[in-house]
Design brief:
InterPro entries: DUF6410. Keywords: Membrane, Transmembrane, Transmembrane helix. The protein is mainly alpha-helical. The protein has eleven helices and no strands. Helix 2 packs parallel to helix 8 and helix 4 crosses helix 11.
Length: 295
């Protein structure tokens, strides 16, 4: 028996009672998001601490503005997010649409006040998605509460969800558990712990000189090796198991690529670029399929 596509049709997965990647987060994924979101607040707090009261208030106002815009956008997109994964804006396409405007932030195209508001909303959303167990694009966590609908949208954190899910679907075999532990620990380092050494000392002391960047530099190769090993173990598991060969082996390959790229800063943020690219390709494909005359 071949296992179902782990990021396949959400309606079919729901009918089977399976958690849907892009909608549901497991226990590990939830904790991972909460910790990552809380740590992500620290650089923003450092910035806010150096601003005047007026500038802080303006930044908070922009946080409310960003939240309102995202909720409104999801409300407008909802009719196209409630369908099957094979159509509409569900999955990669909707994720790409929501992520594209956010690209203005890392590119430095926004003034300081909107940037602060966007950073606050992003870290708030990551934390909230973990608290409520929403496993989709973190930006949609608040709209999912306000609108009462959890759309299937993909995020970089789905890497953690997929590794966690693979561990569970393998019957918790020793190799799968080891792969899951190594993968999550490696992800945690690049997403969270390295910022602990470069941000927390400055946050506590108020001095940039308190940072200890040599620690992340020393640990990064080991964390990357853990991720690569996790990916190789996942590939080995799927080679041994008749079930799951069809869909799960790409996860192992992606985890290996993640581990190789992580030490040079290519991950995890590059995963957003992958989501946007995948959304563009799938969106064009869906448009062409709609225009194709029925046989």
């Amino acid at each position: 028996m071949v296992q179902a596509n782990p990021i396949g049709n959400p309606e079919r997965a729901a009918d089977r009672g399976d958690p849907v990647i892009g909608r549901h987060a497991g226990p590990v994924g939830r904790v991972f998001r909460v910790i990552t979101g809380l740590v992500g607040f620290l650089p923003v707090f450092i910035i806010l601490r150096g601003l005047s009261t007026t500038e802080v208030v303006v930044g908070l106002v922009w946080f409310v503005v960003v939240a309102a815009v995202v909720v409104a956008a999801l409300a407008l997109m909802r009719p196209w997010l409630a369908g099957r994964e094979s159509g509409g804006l569900t999955g990669f396409v909707g994720s790409a649409i929501l992520l594209l405007p956010m690209a203005a932030y890392p590119m430095g195209l926004l003034p300081e006040a909107p940037t602060i508001g966007l950073r606050l909303y992003t870290d708030f959303s990551v934390t909230l998605s973990g608290l409520i167990g929403y496993g989709g694009l973190e930006m949609a966590a608040l709209p999912s509460l306000v609108l009462g609908h959890r759309p299937v949208l993909y995020s970089q954190y789905n890497m953690v969800d997929l590794v966690e899910r693979r561990t569970l679907t393998s019957g918790r075999s020793p190799l799968a558990v080891l792969a899951g532990v190594l993968g999550v620990l490696g992800f945690a380092w690049f997403w969270t712990m390295q910022f602990w050494f470069t941000t927390v000392p400055e946050f506590v002391t108020g001095s940039p000189d308190a940072r200890v960047p040599e620690v992340p530099a020393a640990v990064a190769p080991f964390a990357a090796a853990a991720i690569v090993l996790a990916g190789l173990l996942l590939l080995l598991i799927d080679r041994r198991a008749a079930a799951g060969r069809r869909w799960w082996w790409p996860l192992g390959a992606v985890v290996v690529v993640f581990g190789i790229g992580a030490p040079v800063g290519a991950m995890p943020d590059a995963l957003y670029a992958v989501i946007i690219l995948a959304g563009a390709v799938i969106g064009v494909r869906r448009l062409l399929a709609r225009r194709r005359p029925a046989a």
